[in-house]
Design brief:
This protein has 663 residues and is mainly α. Among the domains are: 254-330; 576-663. Helix content is 71%, strand content 0%. The chain has helices at residues 2-17, 22-33, 42-53, 58-71, 78-91, 97-103, 107-117, 123-132, 138-151, 157-163, 169-182, 185-197, 203-219, 223-233, 240-253, 259-267, 274-279, 289-296, 302-315, 318-327, 333-345, 352-361, 365-377, 381-393, 396-409, 415-421, 427-440, 446-454, 462-473, 479-491, 496-505, 512-522, 527-538, 546-554, 559-575, 582-594, 598-608, 614-622, 630-644, 649-661.
Length: 663
């Protein structure tokens, strides 16, 4: 059977791979020809797919090019013709030139034709553009000039050179830029002549073209001529971006990689070029560059120092790292920030102690976080050792930052240091400790974690400490062992709050022994213990706590304990809704029987609505007669009926009918 299926699929693959039939292609072109912006673009996507599939199939591609040429006709929409030109820019050949030449005659279609022709590297394509230039005006002429520049058409240099002297500065600038792209000797000469004329209106275009000429000369190996032009463009009279471009080009041409020029610039007064000079320090190949420019670091302005730190970090050698470490102690916040971030990225383990000390001195939370982030990036035992050592010395916000960092780094070796801090009188510190312990402590640490839990001194930390202990308990596979450890600690604990905390951990064990411990605690002589036991039973993970909670509900010591027990029972029932058997329906019946008021009935109905069972539906229907909960009962009926109507249509419909009639 599998063989037959594969044969059929292979046959289908052959059919799908067949070329599009002529009639289908004709219809597709007709659909594309009518396309307007905002309409369904599916015909365009289909044609694009055909083009992709035609790769390596000359005959099929020629057929598709012929179809695109048809789309250039005036009968097609402008959007369709633009689409055709976009595709011809990729696959167009000389066959499309006559049709594209027609588009060049109309100002509204010159742009899309230039899009196609500017990418076609053929003498005839350039000739087509060149022939259209004399008659073009306005925007059309600008587009033709740009396309000829993209074609690097040497034969158009004379005509474009004449336009470069036009009184229209926009036209002249476009022509000058095109000459720079063409890059022939004649184009270079034309640009040189324009430089001498020094017309302000086109000065920027001339400078931009000159930089391009210098780049072309450098690529051809004439570094001397290229450097001469770049030096000319470096003059202070040139626009800022031209000067930056010329400076960068000169650095690339310098035999020493620009090292001497960078140094001269740093000692000079040209603020515009200093950022570029500093950035160029990074890739220098000279073995002494790091030492030379590290010595410059303290002499720079704060902003320049941040740039130099980045450049030295790019180099990353020992000398560069040492300079960055020194900068981490700067009196300037921006410099310290840059140095700290760089040390983190470099994973400079040798800076761990320095960063820890800096953390203790950091003036604000933002800087502490930056330093902690850098420390978090450092790897290896040296970094951990420094963090643990500083944790013992630090205080206040710095200590809390280090505690959080220790937790994030995930090294269990931090646990002893954290346990030492767990008894802190400072609530924020103690909270940070227990949050970290929850991540790092392992099964073997649980006895000590429990000891710290019952020995808490800081207020408002108990919840975090209990959560941490519960997380550590979950790392012990055996439930009975978890219970034994908690009970062992409880046997030594006389503090009532500590015992309550230990009781609240028992759901994390979840075994029969833990449940028995809670049952005994419900009858404890201490009211706080009894309440903690009931609250814990209400949070028990499974229905094993049902009977104990029912007992509390039926003979409650206080209304508070009854409410706690009832909510626990409703939660447990709701947890069983996925399998609504007879036992669950009996439980819901018990809960409805226990309900003393409308609020309690509504609570039960909210859970009952999730039980997809005809019997549950009948319980909900029975509550419709109670006016105070009719709305909630009705919602439960609707929800259950919708859930069971597939398997129990009659029961569902009958219940809905009763809902409508109110009987």
């Amino acid at each position: 059977m599998k063989l037959r299926t594969s044969v059929i699929m292979a046959a289908l693959g052959i059919v799908l791979a067949l070329p599009l039939q002529a009639a289908d292609l004709t219809q597709l072109i007709a659909d594309v020809a009518k396309y307007e912006s905002g309409q369904n673009a599916e015909p365009l996507r289909k044609f694009e797919q055909l083009l992709r599939d035609s790769g390596g199939k000359p005959a099929q591609r020629a057929e598709l090019e012929a179809a695109l040429i048809k789309l250039l006709a005036p009968s097609a929409t402008f959007e369709a013709r633009r689409f055709a030109c976009q595709q011809l820019a990729v696959i167009g050949t000389d066959a499309s030139l006559p049709a594209l030449a027609e588009l060049l005659k109309k100002e509204e279609t010159v742009g899309i034709a230039c899009l196609a022709l500017g990418s076609q590297r053929s003498p005839k394509a350039a000739e087509t553009l060149r022939n259209a230039l004399p008659a073009a005006r306005g925007r059309a002429r600008l587009q033709l000039i740009s396309a000829l520049g993209n074609q690097q058409d040497k034969q158009s240099v004379k005509a474009i050179s004449e336009l470069a002297r036009d009184s229209d500065a926009t036209l002249a600038s476009a022509a000058i830029v095109a000459l720079g792209k063409i890059g022939s000797a004649e184009a270079h000469a034309a640009i040189a002549a324009l430089r001498k004329e020094a017309k302000p209106a086109v000065a920027f275009a001339v400078a931009e073209a000159t930089l391009r000429v210098a780049e072309q000369l450098a690529a051809a190996g004439d570094h001397k001529a290229a450097a001469s032009l770049d030096e000319e463009m470096l003059a202070s009279s040139q626009p800022a971006n031209i000067r930056r471009g010329a400076f960068g080009a000169l650095l690339r041409l310098d035999k020493d990689g620009g090292e001497k020029r960078i140094s001269e610039t740093l000692h000079g007064q040209d603020a515009l070029l200093k950022p570029i000079a500093i950035a160029a320090v990074g890739p220098l190949k000279s073995s002494g560059a790091s030492k030379k420019f590290a010595a410059e670091l303290p002499k720079l302005t704060p902003q320049q120092q941040t740039w130099m730190i980045e450049a030295l970090a790019t180099r990353g050698d020992a000398t560069a790292r040492g300079a960055i470490r020194n900068a981490a102690g700067s009196s300037e916040a921006t410099v310290r920030s840059a140095a700290v971030a760089a040390l983190g990225r470099l994973n400079d383990g040798a800076s761990a102690s320095l960063l820890c000390a800096a953390l203790a001195k950091a003036p604000d939370a933002g800087e502490r976080q930056e330093i902690a982030a850098a420390l978090g990036q450092l790897r290896g035992p040296a970094a951990d050792k420094a963090i643990f050592a500083e944790l013992k010395r630090a205080s206040g916000d710095a200590k809390r930052e280090l505690i959080g960092l220790a937790g994030r780094r995930g090294n269990h070796a931090a646990v002893p240091a954290l346990l030492d801090e767990a008894g802190s009188d400072d609530a924020a510190t103690a909270k940070a400790v227990f949050q970290a312990l929850g991540k790092l402590a392992v099964a073997g640490d649980l006895p000590v974690v429990l000891e710290r839990l019952v020995g808490l001194r800081a207020a408002d930390v108990r919840s975090d400490a209990e959560s941490a202990a519960a997380r550590v308990m979950q790392k012990i596979a055996d439930a009975e062992q978890r219970t034994d450890l908690v009970m062992a600690r409880m046997a030594k604990c006389s503090d009532i709050e500590g015992r309550c905390s230990l009781l609240r951990l028992l759901p994390a064990a979840g075994d029969a022994k833990a449940l028995a411990t809670l049952k005994a605690a419900v009858a404890d002589k201490e009211p706080a213990i009894r309440e903690a036991a009931v609250r814990t039973l209400a949070a028990w993970p499974d229905v094993a706590a049902w009977d104990m909670l029912m007992a509390v509900c039926r003979q409650p010591e206080t209304d508070t304990l009854r409410a706690l027990a009832l909510r626990g029972l409703v939660r447990l029932a709701g947890d069983l809704n996925a399998k609504p058997d007879a036992a669950l329906i009996k439980r819901y019946g018990q809960l409805l029987g226990l309900a003393r008021n409308a609020d309690e009935r509504k609570l039960v109905l909210g859970a009952l609505a999730g039980a997809a069972s005809p019997d549950a539906l009948q319980l909900a229907v029975a509550q419709l007669s109670i006016a105070s909960v009719r709305a909630e009962a009705a919602e439960a009926v609707k929800k259950i009926a919708a859930a069971i109507k597939g398997q129990h249509p009659q029961a569902a419909q009958e219940a809905l009918n009763r809902l409508k009639t109110g009987k």
